[in-house]
Amino acid sequence: MDVLIHFKEDGAKLCGFVEGEIDTFTASGLREELEAVKITKGLEIELDLSKVNYMDSTGLGIFVAFYKRATREGGKVKLVGLSNRLQRLFEITGLSELMDIETDKKVEFS
What NCBIfam families has UniProt attached to this entry (predicted)? Predict the structure, then answer.
């Protein structure tokens, strides 16, 4: 299964919806989509992972790299809608201490 990402801009906020499996085989597409995001100072980015049904360490690395780039360029990243399984993955790796994660929220697309 591929990974899909859709973006919606709302003023100074960019909402992304990620769907599918993120692993060694699908990660390059996600990496390319995130690298194409133009980050400006003060931009808030929310990425909804509620439809991600699997992620390995490759996926974690992509989100860490995106988080670091956004922070370096003055933006903010929040991951929302994580399943218990994904939340646990971020917790056991210590990334939940570094990154802004809100499990109960989801990005609204109209």
Answer: ant_ant_sig
